[in-house]
Amino acid sequence: MTLEIDWNDLKFFSDQVSQSGVSPGAFPDSEWERVRLTLFELQNSNDLNGIIKLRELFTGLIARDSAWGIPIIQTLDIAAINAARQLNNYPELGHLLGARGHNLHRQGYHKQAIIAFEESNLNYTIIGDKFNALKSYYMTSLCYRALNNKAKSKKILTNVLQQISIDDPWRGNPLQVLAWLTQDEGDLQKTETLLKEVLVLHEKAADSDILIAQTIADLGEVVGLLGRITEGIDLFQKSLNILARYKGQYNRQEARTNLKYAELLRSQKKYIEALHLLDDADDKASGYGHYYDLMWRIELSRCLIFAQQGKIPSSLLKAQMTLKYRRILGLSNWVLLKQLLQRFISKNGLPR
Q1: Which of 271, 346, 329, 14 is nearest to 148 (CA)?
Q2: DSSP structure string for 115-141
Q3: What confidence tens digit (pLDDT) does each residue in 192-238 have?
Q4: What are phi and psi of 171, to 5 degrees?
Q5: Handedness of CA 162, 154, 156, 118 (dihedral sign)
Q6: How many Å is the maximal CA-CA distance in the chain?
Q7: How far is Cα 139 from Cα 325, in angstroms, rounded to an integer?
Q8: Which residues contact 151 (CB under 8 A, 6 or more apart)?
């Protein structure tokens, strides 16, 4: 029996799970079953355009942080990419691969993300869409930085920034990664200057609340490392207040801010408050998406707190968890040791 597809009902459901204040993973499997059955029917009838249409209903949700751990979302994403390939739909393929690269990068699968971004760039280049091709190329800089290839990351950013007008709000994105690289090098004053420039650009852009919240959290970390503790705390709280407007939709960003906030509190020996923040960060990073790139840093922060408290068995356990998550991602633990030593010497925060 052929399933009659109710596109209006599916649109209503996609609107429901995309609302602020709603965690998409909190919807029971029975609710997501309608999406699975629709995809099954579309695949059986080889309705390639229908598969892409179904994926488009959830575009806004997939672009956020909190839906990627839902199995049908991942299945739908892969099905839409395959459909776009069969149709030689270069614009859609460029978009879908770029979105997949973003999600792979957020989870910590940086090598796979680079492959997705490079294919996205190629498809946009084929149709002459230079700006979107540039955006996918830019995203590889984040991946190379995460893989500790800082030189390649900086080279890409330099190339990208040369092609973007100084007053273009989008310039804030590559400039922010350049600020992270500057922090990696230990120049916190220059990092602060760059981040303030980034914030001005983000504030000019449309729908940029999450970028603003991220930048404010970065500033909170930097000013805290510079010794301006009260200012750092105020910035973290401001970042969390912005994210609270989108409760449930950007769990990863909340976890990221809480991790940085906890590190500031750890530096002030406020261990209990820091551990509470890390618990909340862990819940948000592991709830639906398993963002291992955050999870290993959360465990590392716990490891350091327990060591400072003299709780050596607990510290060692958290060290094991840190290494376990990094192994899942294929990251070098020798590189982590070198980064830790470098950051302890320069006092510029946890490895990232």
Answers
A1: 329
A2: HHHHHHHHHHHHTT-HHHHHHHHHHHH
A3: 999 999 999 999 999 899 999 999 999 999 999 999 999 999 999 99
A4: -55, -25
A5: negative
A6: 68
A7: 23
A8: none
Residue 105 sits at the vertex; the CA angle it makes with 104 and 109, to the nearest 5 degrees, is: 65
Angle formed at CA 97 by CA 152 and CA 164, multiple of 5 degrees: 50
Picking from 123, 157, 128, 126, the residue whose alpha carbon sits closest to that of residue 140 is 157
Residue 3 in 3-state DSSP? Answer: coil
294: tokens are 């955050």
The model's pTM: 0.89
Q: What is the 3-state secondary structure (H, E, C) of 34-90?
A: HHHHHHHHHHHCCCHHHHHHHHHHCHHHHCCCCCCCCHHHHHHHHHHHHHHHHCCCH
Query: How long is the chain?
Result: 352
Q: Is the dihedral of CA 295, 296, 302, 306 positive or negative?
A: positive
Q: Report the distance separating Cα 189 and Cα 259, nearest Å.
A: 22
Regions in the chain scoring below 70 on pLDDT? 1-3, 66, 288-289, 342-352
